[in-house]
Amino acid sequence: MQPIFLFLAIVLFFIVALTINNYIQRKRGNTTEREMAPPSIDLSQSGCCGAHEVCEKDSLIAAFAEEPEYFDDEELDKYSCRDSSAFSEDEVEEFREIFYTILDEEKPRWVRSLQMRSISVPDQMKDEVLMFVNELRMQKMHA
């Protein structure tokens, strides 16, 4: 009779040990049932505004598009593959003029369009764009 109790005690010990280990791993965030992480958008290289909730939502459809959407801004194509820190003040003003003539709800799509065309938002404008899109996101959250 004692071997059965010993066997049950060992089985019970392993069940308790596995349960505690599972609890500790989940507490640390180590789960095997992870969701796929959202795609990261590198603000420094890609030209995205960095407001991921807005950009990613608006870019989900655009991500499947083969051609970028234009906002009467074809002249910006000459800045393709240019580093975001390499823009003169006149060139930044060219970006600004287009940015402020686009409808507010289209601005995240415009940034996504630039990204698809390998055009970086100039460093001088990144804070403006990010601030505007964050404000737009806050308005949508409160609406």
Task: Give short descriptive properties of this protein.
single chain; 143 residues; mainly alpha; 2 domains; Putative membrane protein
Describe the protein in words:
Residues 33-59 have low confidence and may be disordered. The chain has helices spanning 2-27, 43-46, 52-64, 89-101, 107-116, 123-142. The termini are far apart. The protein folds into two domains: 1-34; 43-142, no CATH class. The radius of gyration is 25 Å and the shape is elongated. Helix content is 60%, strand content 0%. With 143 residues, it is mostly helical.
Brief overview:
The chain is an all-alpha fold and 143 residues long. Helices cover 60% and strands 0% of the residues. α3 (52-64) packs across α5 (107-116).
Write the layout of secondary structure elements.
Elements: H1 2-27, H2 43-46, H3 52-64, H4 89-101, H5 107-116, H6 123-142
Helix pairs in contact: 3-5
- Output mean pLDDT: 78
Work out the helix count.
Answer: 6
- Helical content, roughly? 55-70%
Q: Choose one word for the global shape.
A: elongated
* Terminal residue distance: 70 Å
Say how many strands there are: 0
Proportion of β residues? under 5%
Oligomeric state of shown chains: single chain
**Succession of helices and strands:** HHHHHH
**Major beta sheet summary:** none
Q: Structural class, from helix and strand content?
A: mainly alpha
Organism: Fermentimonas caenicola
Protein name: Putative membrane protein
